[in-house]
Each structure stands twice: as structure tokens, then as C-alpha cells.
TrEMBL record:
Residue span, Nudix hydrolase domain: 153-278
Gene: nudC
Stored Gene3D superfamilies: 3.90.79.20, Nucleoside Triphosphate Pyrophosphohydrolase
Protein name, per record: NAD(+) diphosphatase
Its EC number(s): 3.6.1.22
A Pfam family recorded for this sequence: NUDIX
CDD domains registered for this protein in UniProt: NUDIX_NADH_pyrophosphatase_Nudt13
PROSITE patterns according to UniProt: NUDIX (PS51462), NUDIX_BOX (PS00893)
GO molecular function, a single term: hydrolase activity
Keywords recorded for this protein, A-Z: Hydrolase, Magnesium, Metal-binding, NAD
Cofactor needs: Zn(2+); Mg(2+)
Similarity-based family: Belongs to the Nudix hydrolase family. NudC subfamily.
Catalysed reactions, as listed in the record: a 5'-end NAD(+)-phospho-ribonucleoside in mRNA + H2O = a 5'-end phospho-adenosine-phospho-ribonucleoside in mRNA + beta-nicotinamide D-ribonucleotide + 2 H(+)
Length: 299
């Protein structure tokens, strides 16, 4: 039984005008800086969040003109919006995982872009081909060497797949580092020269030893930890086929019925503590949650 997502994944709900046509317009960026708002994030990706909203400050209080270390995120409420890495940021701070479902579409769009871009800049100071120093241009959306060689933000695609039996059961797995009762669906990075469908086949075989079929694309979600794109799938496997954990990433996996998954969804997510249900599912920030909820909603 195939299914589709019944909601847009949380981090895919961006409500930011990215204003990409302005990125190469240095004069426009300079003119907009005087009224621009700035989001500051430390090395851990933490930021200030108060009264249900991101704390956005005046950009000119950071620097008189567009700062080369800042990244241009777009336009919000008629004002330019930037983000910058601030290693001295202190006080009461939040991070994207902590906020979970307590964020709106604007906040989701701002944080996913800011984190992905700043994480890329942290490791892109030298050109990959010859090690020459690079400098940010176009509002932080690319880097260039002195001789004009340009590089763009790196994105790491990864598949994430719910395996089900075509009926009433789904396979959920637990990594070694996770506490007992915490389960999710399976995921892995796409390799060079590999299609998404072949990646699903390979990763499911490597992680739990199952041969999957009827691979069905569901949707995607940015995952800026540090700069991934999660591509969601569902696939069918035979629950009688033995589970084999050949790559060492998975500690255990079990087939759960739809009713068991529905009960777990009602009981809460990974934030649950102490004694409770035998199954804890991912929080709402992950596309894994949306995929599981969509499968569980089937009649």
C-alpha cells in the first residue's frame, strides 16, 4: 500500500523571500544594510530566541557596511535579512533542535538557510582543487579565489526511508548511541555516481540486510546539521527476511504494527523521559516524523 506525505515537513516550510537577484548587486546590498536585521549564531549554531521569535538586531550595530563574514538570507517585512557567526554570543541561547515544533515558517526558513550557509563557510576557506584562499562574494552565496575560481555552497544529499510490508507493519531501527526504546526510520548519504533509488536499495541492505522494492519518493527537507538535504522515500520489504546489521550502525530493528506506531505518536516523541511506551519516535523537526505520521494515518 503506497502513501504520500500528509503534511509539509517542518523545516521545508520556509516563508522567506530569498531575493536571489540581489546577491550579486553589491550596491543594493550596501544600501539595504542600514536598515537590515541581523541574526547572530555561535559556533554551536545557537542563537537568541525570545517571546516566540528570533532575536534580530540592527546590522549597522555589527558593522557600518555589509560584513564579509555575514550571509544574505533575503528580505523580510521590506528589510534585508542577514546572519553572521558570532563566537562571543552568550546568554540564554536556543538551537533549532530545541525549538522543534515551536517555530513558524519564517523561523524555519531563516534558520535552515543561515545554518547551512555558515556551516559551509566554516570549512570552505580554501579552494578544493589547489588549496588557494577563497573569499565570500554574492552575499555569502559563493566564494572565489584571486584568479576567479568560484565555489558554491556544498549540499550533502541523503536518503531517508520507511520500510513497510505493504500492509500493517513498518520497520523501525535504533542506533547504538540511542537509548532503549528510541527508534526511527533508516537513512544514509548518497554516494558519488549513485541514483537516489539505488542509494535506497544499498543503504537498506547495508543497514538491516533487507531487499526493498516498490521504492516511492515522498518529499524532501533541508537538514542543516551541518548542510544536508534529506530525501524521503518509502519502500516495501518482506518481514520474513532475516535482519542483518552488516555496517555496524544499527543496534537493533523491529517490525511494529500500525496500531503500535499510532500509540507511540500519541504518547510523545524523543523528549519523553523515564518509564513509558516501548517505542519513542523522532520529534517533529525531522522529516522522519512526517513520514511515520503519514504512514500511520493510513486506514
Amino acid at each position: 500500500m503506497s502513501f504520500d506525505l500528509n503534511a509539509v515537513p517542518l523545516l521545508s516550510r520556509s516563508a522567506v523571500d530569498r531575493a536571489d537577484t540581489l546577491r550579486a548587486d553589491d550596491q543594493a546590498l550596501k544600501e539595504g544594510w542600514s536598515e537590515a536585521r541581523l541574526l547572530r549564531l555561535n559556533r554551536k549554531g545557537q542563537f537568541r530566541f525570545a517571546e516566540g521569535a528570533l532575536v534580530l538586531e540592527s546590522a549597522v550595530e555589527w558593522s557600518a557596511e555589509p560584513n564579509p563574514t555575514a550571509v544574505f538570507l533575503g528580505i523580510a517585512e521590506g528589510r534585508h535579512l542577514w546572519a553572521v557567526r558570532d563566537t562571543d554570543l552568550t546568554g540564554e541561547l536556543s538551537d533549532l533542535r530545541m525549538l522543534a515544533d515551536g517555530i513558524d515558517d519564517f523561523t524555519a526558513g531563516v534558520l535552515t538557510s543561515a545554518l547551512a550557509l555558515l556551516n559551509w563557510h566554516d570549512s570552505a576557506g580554501f579552494h578544493a582543487a589547489d588549496g588557494v584562499v577563497t573569499a565570500p562574494i554574492k552575499g555569502g552565496w559563493s566564494r572565489v579565489t584571486e584568479n576567479g575560481a568560484e565555489e558554491f555552497p556544498r549540499l550533502d544529499p541523503a536518503v531517508i526511508c520507511l520500510i513497510h510490508d505493504g500492509g500493517d507493519r513498518a520497520l523501525l531501527a535504533r542506533q547504538h548511541a540511542w537509548p532503549p526504546r528510541r527508534y526511527s526510520i533508516l537513512a544514509g548519504f548518497v554516494e558519488a555516481g549513485e541514483s537516489l533509488e539505488r542509494c535506497v536499495e544499498r543503504e537498506m541492505k547495508e543497514e538491516v540486510g533487507l531487499d526493498v522494492r516498490d521504492i516511492h519518493y515522498l518529499g524532501s527537507q533541508p537538514w542543516p546539521f551541518p548542510r544536508s538535504l534529506m530525501l524521503g522515500f518509502a519502500a516495501v520489504a518482506d518481514p520474513e527476511q532475516p535482519l542483518v546489521f552488516s555496517d555496524g550502525e544499527i543496534a537493533e530493528a523491529q517490525w511494529f504494527t500500525r496500531d503500535e506506531v499510532r500509540t507511540a505518536l500519541t504518547d510523545g516523541d524523543w523528549s519523553a523521559r523515564g518509564e513509558g511506551p516501548r517505542l519513542l519516535l523522532p520529534g517533529s523537526i525531522s522529516i522522519a516524523r512526517t513520514i511515520v505520521e503519514s504512514w500511520a494515518a493510513l486506514d
